[in-house]
Amino acid sequence: MGFLMDLIERRYSLADMDRDMDLAVYPPETQAGVQVNESNALDYPDVFACVRVISEDVGSLPFVLYRRLGDKGRERASDHPLYSILHDAPNPEMTAMTFRETLTGHLNTWGNAYAEIQLDDHLRVIGLWPLRPDRTIPFRDAAKRLKYKIRLPGGKDVVLDAGRVFHIPAFGFNGLYGYSPIAKARGAIGLAMAAEKFGSKTFANNARPGMYFSHPSEMSPDAQENFRKSWEEKHLGLDNAQRLAILEEGLEIKTVGFPPEDIQFLETRKFQRTQICAIFRMKPHKIADLSDATYSNIEHQGVEYTIDTIRPWAIRWEQTVALKLLDTRERQEYYAEHLIDALLRGDSKSRAEALAIQRSWGALSADEWRELENRNPLPDGEGQTYLSPTNMTVVGSPQQPEGGRTVLPQLVPVYGPVGNRSSRASRKAGAEKRLLIARSFRKVFNDAAGRMVKREVRKLLSEAKRQDPMSFRSFAREYYEAHRAMFREFMEPAFASLAEAVQAQAATEAGGFAGMTRALNECLDYHIERVAERHCNGAYNTLVAALTKEGRAADDLLYDLMVEELEDWPETVPAALTTWETVRTTGLISKATYFTNEVRRLEWVELDGNRYCKQLDEMVIDLGSRCEGSTFVDRDSEIEYEGRSSDVFTPSWNVTTPPLWNGCECMVAAVKD
Questions:
Q1: C-alpha separations of 606 from 191, 229, 311, 595, 667 in Å
Q2: Residue 330 belongs to what H/E stretch?
Q3: Pick the residue with more confidence: 484 or 72?
Q4: How far is CA 601 from CA 107, 596, 616, 625, in A?
């Protein structure tokens, strides 16, 4: 032990620890006049919800002991005695979830979790038994060795060596114990409990402020006490609300105090909930506070909760297992880890798309994919192979010709023709791969567009508060004229990343080089500018339409009108832009890549099952130019469904690439001679 720790231990004795434990059990009153300790804090709903959610989530995660396989790889060490203790049951009376849920709850209240390590005659771990944190005291003996004193229910004290106690400390570990979150935040929790108590008292008094009675003459003490008791029995409490009161002898009722809204009662309770969530690093939506949650951000908040809230507790568990339950030799071979990916799963469609990309690029075998989805392997080892993209090669790797002489790679196209790439089946296969790429970028597009639109809405509402309709219209025109630069700031990284991924796949199909050339970047830049222009013009026109809507009274408040108009923008605008542009940008970059690689004909590949898209399936046109080119359907032309002139679709733009409608997932493909 270092010199500094020696000084600390001399100052902090076992008697000091006893004093601190007494303070935890019998805490002083907070400034709000409420006593708060680790036990009664759980009586407050927000504290209970935070502790319960974290404890249940950590306890429900599979906790697996792994064996390292040489320099890389691993396998489940199911033959090790500790495996079943962590994964199944730590003792005959508790499941693994109950045990880890209990100890994680202790961590989030007392700041420490303790369990007795049960050993067999060969000093192997055969069980773990929880110890009460309010009855367990870590200390150092005269020889500076760490010990634990456990006070049994009958009052007897038992001292265990450090090797017999599984101890997880929370934040603030000083060599003996971690800080109690409840003790450190006693004032904030006390204020929340006081606000709840105030509300209860208010309703117990028929939801009325304090009152007093005025009598024209003096009343004796006995008369006052008799009247008080009679009044409380007949008129206090919700069961006695609205009962008729009869006042005699000139008595008058007078009220004193102020209503709850004057002391911001509801705002106080809401603010204290936010503070309690901050204590536990809890996302409010996890405890049923959805005031700041939206459809577009709820999944990202869930990911943040997993990373920021659950992950630190999981790591504490994993490292304490290594320190306390594995010896020095075993740590070189074994380690415990939570399967935390279960909390990071998105919806089934997004998860399938992500796994499909990993499968296509050789990161997953079919059996590994099936295992992640809790399915059995394919028979006869069929699912153990990995796919390998034909366009990939190791940079600088030598190639070995038949003559045996090693040569360096020549400057030849990385993507060469493989088989009959001009067949209909191969063109559709390439289109399906690019569709998977487009889908995988939708979250990126939606997130970037969502942040941009939220900034737009905040600015528009801020101006609507202080301007009249005419000046607001002028402001909106100037704002959206300058808004294109902000559009590029938010959206250009998403467009560029999608373009790079699509270009690599399109180059594979065309038999050319991968990489964004100057010409391709110019096409992308031109496209982004046009999308920014359409977004800004569309937003401005929508605002003007709202200001000039028929039936709108001239004295309608501008701010209220804008709140109504802009309420859905943060969800609807990013969603529409995402579904449209991921497909359209994929088509434009694919077409430009084909043009660069001397492909001059383009085919429409229907992939979404839409009846009008099916009319365009296998239609082939000349490619035209790199960035614009020929059209599949001219503006205002009619697409008839199965030849029925009464059932037509008329696009209001020249359709040079998909989508045909917002939601269309068709693709284009290169037709090579």
A1: 62, 83, 44, 21, 7
A2: helix 328-331
A3: 484
A4: 66, 12, 15, 11
How far is it, in rounded angstroms, from Cα 423 to Cα 427? 6
**CA dihedral over 373, 374, 378, 383, signed as positive or negative:** positive
The first and second tokens of residue 179, run together, are: 């800080």
* Rounded-to-integer distance, Cα 83 and Cα 341, Å: 20
- 491: tokens are 């959206």
> Both tokens of residue 78?
């199911």
Can you give the pTM of this predicted structure?
A: 0.49
Specify the amino acid at residue 347.
D
Place 11 in a pLDDT band, splitting at 50, 70 and 90. Answer: very low
Tokens of 216: 């024209």
3-state SS, residue 629:
coil
| 353-361 CB contacts, 8 Å cutoff, 24+ apart | 353/436, 353/439, 353/440, 354/440, 356/436, 357/436, 357/437, 357/440, 359/387, 360/387, 360/389, 360/433, 360/436, 361/387, 361/389
Contact 136, 149 (CB under 8 A): yes
Confidence class for position 349, pLDDT limits 50, 70, 90: low
Q: What is the pLDDT of residue 271?
A: 65
Supply φ then ψ for residue 308, to 5 degrees.
-85, -30
For 254-289, give the secondary structure using H, E and C. EECCCCHHHHCHHHHHHHHHHHHHHHCCCCHHHHCC
| DSSP type of residue 373 | T
670 - beta bridge partners?
602
| pLDDT 10s digits, 242-297 | 565 666 666 666 654 545 444 445 565 666 778 888 888 888 888 777 776 555 56
Alpha carbons 36 and 1: distance in angstroms, whole number? 36
Distance CA 598, CA 624 (A): 11
Q: Quote the tokens at residue 226.
A: 């008799």
Query: What single-letter amino acid sits at 502?
Result: V
C-alpha triplet 197, 202, 205: angle, nearest 5°? 125
Specify which of 252-266, 352-366, 448-462 reaches the highest per-range mean pLDDT. 448-462
For residues 672 and 422, is the Cβ–Cβ distance under 8 A?
yes
Structure tokens at 407: 């040569």
Residue 94 neighbours by CB under 8 Å, 6+ apart:
102, 130
Nearest to 302 by CA among 488, 99, 57: 57
| Residue at 366: amino acid letter | A
244 burial via Cβ count (<10 Å: 0-12, 13-18, 19+): exposed
Contact present, 176 and 138 (Cβ < 8 Å)? yes
Q: What is the pLDDT of residue 205?
A: 52
Q: How far apart are CA 281 and CA 560, in angstroms?
A: 35
Distance separating alpha carbons of residues 379 and 363, to the nearest angstrom: 21
CB 587 within 8 A of CB 474: no
